[in-house]
């Protein structure tokens, strides 16, 4: 089917709630790995990943760093407000989601501990807030790790480490690029020993990644914008790669394929990948298990084939894999075009 023929309900599946991982496993690379390819399905461990790679392959990771983007405040009227920073605009302004009983008007104040934030304007579903003491300083002092809504607990000290990849460098994400959470230094070393180079891109994951699709016709959905950067060194490695380009996560896929479509190695992307999309860069994908009817599941289905992914998810549910951000992973090869 062409992408315009797909319905949101085509990507629905039943998931027992107990399979939603509420905490990370004891060791990053001890997670399970479901291999999805032309030969069918295979059950492995993430520590086995280097065996699935070949000399000359290029592994591309997202080095964004998650900021403490969630704030709890009180409106000047006395009501509660929960703030989730979507994007830092400059030193003193940030674009935010605000959950409160009533919409906020420009000029209103939200008190976060000893800091008063001012509402400057509304931009669609977001608010532009002023942080008089600086955005970074307020988040560092009062912010919480922005765990996804399906993790039904408050963040704790362990999340500050485990909801961050070992290669996180550039602060700006409000959600982790979760496929990268499975890597530890020993797996990265084994990958390099295999003759596989590791390159980085940066895409700051926005809160929009958790927004449900509100239309049934997939072609009517508009993706949120996210900022990305492909360093010159990574571009050189991509151009020189004689093996496969292996993307660690959907954010890397959107970065590389978005840049291929636009011709720009930095900027914003709204690329929405659905079945029927023609991939130009990525040959293999490491990814977590995603929410039903989500744009991320649609991307994986476009990459590996919708029917193949449907079978893989059914197998994962039957075999009690752990799902979502702190869950297990898949290794997918690209479907034949």
Protein described:
The chain is an alpha/beta fold. It has two domains: 3-66 and 157-333, QueA-like (3-Layer(aba) Sandwich); 70-142, Thrombin, subunit H (Beta Barrel), CATH 2.40.10. The chain is built from eight helices and 17 strands. The chain has helices at 49-52, 135-142, 157-162, 185-193, 232-240, 250-262, 295-304, 306-318, and strands at 32-37, 40-45, 58-62, 64-66, 70-75, 80-90, 93-99, 109-112, 115-123, 126-130, 170-173, 197-203, 226-229, 245-248, 266-269, 284-288, 329-333. A nine-stranded mixed beta sheet has the order 2-1-17-16-14-3-12-13-15. A six-stranded antiparallel barrel has the order 5-6-7-10-9-8. The chain is globular, with a radius of gyration of 20 Å. The model has no long low-confidence stretch (mean pLDDT 95).
What percent of the residues sit in helical stretches (DSSP H or I)? Answer: 10-25%
End-to-end Cα distance, whole Å, is: 13 Å
CATH topology of the largest domain: QueA-like
Going across the major beta sheet, what is the strand order?
2-1-17-16-14-3-12-13-15
- CATH superfamily heading of the largest domain: QueA-like
The geometry reads as: globular
Question: From the 3D coordinates, which CATH architecture of the largest domain would you assign?
Answer: 3-Layer(aba) Sandwich
Taking all Cα atoms into account, the compactness measure Rg is: 20 Å
- Spans with pLDDT under 50 lasting ≥5 residues? none
Tell me the number of structural domains: 2
SS element count, helices: 8
């Amino acid at each position: 089917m062409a992408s315009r023929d797909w319905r949101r309900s085509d990507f629905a599946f039943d998931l027992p709630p107990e399979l939603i991982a509420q905490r990370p496993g004891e060791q990053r690379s001890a997670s399970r790995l479901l291999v999805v390819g032309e030969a069918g399905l295979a059950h492995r461990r993430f520590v086995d990943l280097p065996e699935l790679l070949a000399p000359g392959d290029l592994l591309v990771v997202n080095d964004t760093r998650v900021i403490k983007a969630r704030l709890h405040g009180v409106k000047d009227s006395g009501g509660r407000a929960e703030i989730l920073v979507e994007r830092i605009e400059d030193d003193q302004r940030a674009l935010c989601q605000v959950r409160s009983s009533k919409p906020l008007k420009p000029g209103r104040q939200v008190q976060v501990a000893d800091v008063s934030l001012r509402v400057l304007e509304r931009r669609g579903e977001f608010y532009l807030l002023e942080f008089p003491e600086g955005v970074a300083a307020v988040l560092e002092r009062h912010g919480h790790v922005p765990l996804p809504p399906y993790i039904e607990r408050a963040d704790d000290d362990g999340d500050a480490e485990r909801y961050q990849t070992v290669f996180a460098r550039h602060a700006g994400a409000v959600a982790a690029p979760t496929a990268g959470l499975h890597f530890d230094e020993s797996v990265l070393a084994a990958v390099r020993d295999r003759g596989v180079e590791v390159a980085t891109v940066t895409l700051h994951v926005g809160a929009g990644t958790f927004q449900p699709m509100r239309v049934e016709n997939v072609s009517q959905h508009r993706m949120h914008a996210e900022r990305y950067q492909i360093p010159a060194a990574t571009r050189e490695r991509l151009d020189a790669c004689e093996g496969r380009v292996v993307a660690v996560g959907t954010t890397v896929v959107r970065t590389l394929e978005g840049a291929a479509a636009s011709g720009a190695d930095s900027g914003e992307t709204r690329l929405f990948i659905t079945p029927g999309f023609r991939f130009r860069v990525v040959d293999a994908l490491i990814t977590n298990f995603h929410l039903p009817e989500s744009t991320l599941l649609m991307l994986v289905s476009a990459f590996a084939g919708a029917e193949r992914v449907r079978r893989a998810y059914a197998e994962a549910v039957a075999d009690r894999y752990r799902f979502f951000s702190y869950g297990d992973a898949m290794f997918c090869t690209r479907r034949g075009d």
